[in-house]
Specification:
The chain is α+β, with helices and mostly antiparallel strands and 202 residues long. It has 3 domains: 47 residues, no CATH class; 43 residues, no CATH class; 79 residues, no CATH class. Helix content is 44%, strand content 15%. Strands 1-2-3 form a 3-stranded antiparallel β-sheet, with no helix packed on it. Strand 1 and strand 2 form a beta hairpin. Helix 1 crosses helix 2 and helix 6 packs antiparallel against helix 7. It is elongated. One of its GO terms (cellular component) is nucleus. Keywords: Metal-binding, Nucleus, Zinc, Zinc-finger. It is found in: Nucleus. One of its GO terms (molecular function) is zinc ion binding.
């Protein structure tokens, strides 16, 4: 065989970059010495493999195995999925989630409204309409602006169109949206639309 002598200047053994000793230590730590030794001897990987979940849990850190055979109901299954690996977490109820979502929406809407009211530049309002698979038509309002050198897009509103969207209906929807936001740059578009449709501004 070939003998390699790798030593430092002072005579200490030099580390071998191609050595697999660290990998072997890691494999023994993860899968155990018996598995690593069996692979070194050439035993096939699937020979003697125990794929039961009990063996997997028992092998992981030699901790005791706690298994429940009780059938999960749907709410329990949802909570188990959300708290998997983090049993200290508490899943809030649906009313709590609904209340928090409403509070977050209202706070975000106030911040966006304040940003639009205080914005010095030009605001570009766009609409996007589409038909859902159940043949209901929807229209979304978006506003585009540039804030601190970065383009921003906000979804302002989304609503279902109850009838064929003529210019008259479009202006009524625009009026309703303006009455809630009071954005100055939107007021000009509203006046032009009202004049074109023959409606009076209120």
């Amino acid at each position: 065989g070939i003998k390699r002598y790798q030593t430092k200047v002072n005579g200490d053994p030099h580390s071998d970059r191609s050595s697999t000793s660290n990998l072997k230590k890691h494999a023994k730590h993860c899968w155990g010495s018996d598995v690593v030794d069996a692979r070194i001897r050439g035993v096939p990987a699937d020979a003697g493999r125990d794929s039961s979940i009990f063996a997997a849990f028992a092998r992981s850190g030699q901790r005791p195995v706690n298994v429940s055979h009780r059938t999960h109901t749907q709410p329990e299954f949802r909570c188990d999925l959300l708290t998997a690996g983090r049993p200290e977490l508490k899943v809030p109820g649906r009313s709590t989630v609904a209340r928090d979502l409403k509070a977050v929406y209202e706070r975000s809407a106030d911040r966006v409204k304040k940003l639009l009211m205080e914005y010095d530049g030009r605001l570009s309002f766009t609409t996007d309409a589409w038909t859902s698979p159940n043949h209901r038509a929807f229209v979304a309002w978006t506003v585009h602006l540039q804030h601190e050198g970065e383009p921003l897009v906000f979804l302002l509103d989304i609503f279902e169109v109850p009838e064929v969207c003529l210019c008259r209906l479009f202006c009524l929807l625009l009026t309703s949206f303006y009455s809630r936001t009071r954005v100055k740059s939107l007021h000009v578009s509203l006046m032009i639309c009202l004049d074109a449709s023959g409606l009076s501004a209120k």
